[in-house]
Amino acid sequence: MKVAKKAPAKKRSPKAMTNDPAALLSGVVGSRGVTLVDLTQTLSPDFPPIVLPPEMGQSRPFRMEEISRYDDRGPAWYWNNVSFGEHTGTHFDAPVHWISGSDLPNNSVDSLPIEHFIAPAGVIDCSTEAQKDADFLLTATHVKAWEKRHGRIAAGSWVLMRTDWSKRADPVAYQNLDATGQHTPGPDPGCVRFLVQERDVLGFGTETIGTDAGQAAHFKPPYPCHYYMHGAGKYGMQCLCNLDRLPPTGALIVAAPLKILQGSGSPLRVFAIVPKR
Amino acid sequence: MPRAAKIPIRKNPILRTRQPTLPPASRSRVALGLTAAAARGRFELQVCRDCGAVQYPPREVCRDCLSHRLAWRQQDGRGELVTETTLRSAQELYFRERLPWRVGIVRLNAGVNVIAHLHERVGTAPCRVRVEVALDRAGQAALIAVPEQGRPHLSDDPRLREMTCDPRGRKILVTDGKSVVGQAIVRALAAAGAEVIWIGEAEPWKKVAGLEALRELPPATVVPLDVTDGKSVRELAGEIGAKVDILINTADHHSAFSIASRRGVETAQSEMDVNYLGLLRLAQEFAPLLKARAADEPANAIAWVNLLSIFALANYPPHGTYSASKAAAYSLSQALRAELRPAGVCVINLFPGPVDDEWDQLEMPPKLSPVSLASAVAEALKGSVEDVYPGDVAQDWLARHLDNPKALERELEEGAR
Fold first, then answer.
1. Interface list for chain B against chain A, based on CB atoms closer than 8 Å
2. Which residues on A lie below 8 Å from B208 (Cβ)?
3. Domains of chain B and any CATH numbers
């Protein structure tokens, strides 16, 4: 039997991402179930913090002092006092973190819209490039090529740059510092402008210490991901892990920073809800 | 000069580890004047300001004219060994374990008779000697007669060696090898014959060339240690704490800020976290291990060295918060000394003036070079002292502090170092 002739076939293009949590969640529920992927590094004293010249104010690394451990200090209970900078371990950057976002409304972690704590993610795999070149820079051209395969990045979604950098278990290799500073991958200024101005993303996430590349202090402007993203009220996530276990599209990111008064950021327990295929 | 001390033999693991005993430690307050001078390496006796008579033993009033105007004055110690004896039995446990023990009476040129331990190189009485002062394992002044000619070292005599903390053949932890001072100390200890030097490295992702070069030094092993991290201190104590004979705390956080030149307390907290709490963390984890091995001779735990600052004595306002953190560390070092004393483990404090490093860049000379500071550490260990004020600035500040602490405070207020 012949099928009625349809309108001329459209050029095949991937379905655009959606950023409606209700639609996404119902899609998840209606699917064959979900997998949860933890994107969080363990908060530990051994996890390296950002490095700044020593005369500058320093972000404290994670530290833990025991209060009691079933002993004379507290016979039946174990607990600790912990201390750390807001930007420690796997963490969230709010717009107020950067001077470009200093005057925006609702720019600190205590005032962010709660709707933003669940959002879809596009995951761009740069692991091959980052392995070849620690200073690899993601460009708008790369992003557009990714969109050709996986669909246009929806407004209000996270863009996560997968580099497999989190697999560097040795803190020395993870920091990757030499006399000229840090060498870690990140986005170039044009890429960030594209994501902010033309895609209106929710934020940008990386596996390295910082959403910006290690050498971004020398970019124009310096630290473009901080400058443009936060200047437009967008967010950052860094020190993420397990991005290799996420699909390019379809994952829902749950990232709720601590509700710190006027906080500029917060360590995260961030995870992804991934539909089973 | 040939040195008698050899690399210590290995411990026999089936024998019970010896417990520390101490020589008699009680002293009257006036007798502690002898110890106070000895703690700085000086042999001082009281001299009457009225009649000039030198006093021994220390007393309240002049033995000749009954004047109470007695002042401690440095002595050259020259004299004659008049008579000697060798103890072959003793009630005191410390000496009982170390018999036979030579003592003698020395007639000092200054006109008093003193009882002194005899260095093994001292000939038979009567003979010319020089009396030196040392701190015994109880931390009290002890007088040692050595030959008048030459400068025999205390560690050349196996029984007197334990009045020193000679680094030769010792296993030593230097808590921070990333500073130029820490690196210079490691080199000085290697030159002094240390058997093992563990070098603490915090934040290994920040490479410093000086530490990389030390990795080639035969006795050196770089170990992870961050004194701001209790877990790091605990883990290192677990791994090597029971081997450490001498701990040298070089960890130092120095920010050159006054109260007004830095907003907030973040840098001051970091200074306290390293300089004060870092010492506390080290003390809680390592001090019990050192105490347990204090009598495990000849490879026993013997000393704890703190690198403080002359700013601990009086606040240097341009480095106001740093001074405060060093004062806190100084205070804690006194508590540590009290806790280690019953084991005979010596706590040595160094109070250098400004050091020729990046944090004292804007300080005018004279500044102590890291190499000079390192040799002061090595000399302090080879000698028998508790408090060391290396360099001209430290000596000057100390003299002004002892003379009139309030005057020094005022002088520092006016910016005169």
1. 203-207, 226, 228-232, 255, 264, 266-267, 270
2. none
3. 32-163 (no CATH), 171-413 (3.40.50.720)
In order of their start, the domains of chain A are: 21-50+86-275 (3.50.30.50)
Nearest CA in chain B to A47: B203
Task: Look up the pTM and report it.
Answer: 0.93
Min distance A60 CA to chain B CA atoms (Å): 9
Determine the distance in angstroms separating the CA of A62 from the nearest CA of chain B, rounded to an integer.
Answer: 9
**What is the C-alpha separation between A28 and A5, in angstroms, rounded?**
34
Which site among B207, B229, B235, B362 would you substitute to test the A interface, given the most A Cβ atoms closer than 10 Å to its Cβ?
B229
| A58 chain-B contacts, CB cut-off 8 A | 266-267, 270
Q: One of A87, A97, A150, A226 is an active-site residue; which one?
A: A97
Joined tokens for residue B307: 């690198």
- Is residue A97 part of the annotated active site? The answer reads yes
Contact A267, A82 (CB under 8 A): no
Biggest alpha carbon–alpha carbon distance for chain A: 85
**CA dist., res. A235 & res. B13, Å (int):** 61
- Rounded Cα distance, B285 and B120, in Å: 38
B231 with A66: Cβ contact below 8 A: no
What is the β-pairing status of strands A118-125 and A251-254? antiparallel
* Pick from A45, A55, A171: CB nearest B204: A171
Closest by CA to B161, choosing from B391, B410, B382, B9, is: B382
Tens-digit pLDDT string for chain B (417 aa): 344 445 556 778 888 888 999 999 999 999 999 999 999 999 999 999 999 999 999 999 999 999 999 999 999 999 999 999 999 999 999 999 999 999 999 999 999 999 999 999 999 989 999 999 999 999 999 999 999 998 888 989 988 998 999 999 999 999 999 999 999 999 999 999 999 999 999 999 999 989 999 999 999 999 999 999 999 999 999 999 999 999 999 999 998 899 999 999 999 999 999 999 999 999 999 999 999 999 988 789 999 999 999 999 999 999 999 999 999 999 999 999 999 999 999 999 999 999 999 889 999 999 999 999 999 999 999 999 999 999 999 999 999 999 999 999 999 998 766
CB pair distance less than 8 Å for A51 and B205? yes
Pairing of strands B346-350, B303-307: parallel
CB contact under 8 A, B266 and A172: no
Q: What is the 8-class DSSP label of residue A16? A: P
By CA distance, what is B234's nearest residue in A?
Answer: A65
Q: Measured between alpha carbons, how far apart are the two ends of chain B, in Å?
A: 40
Give the ranges where A73-228 is alpha helix by DSSP (H).
127-132, 140-150, 171-175, 189-193, 224
- Crossing angle of the two packed helices B180-191 and B370-382, in degrees rounded to 10: 40
Residue keyed to tokens 């953190």? B325
Strand-pair partners of B85: B103
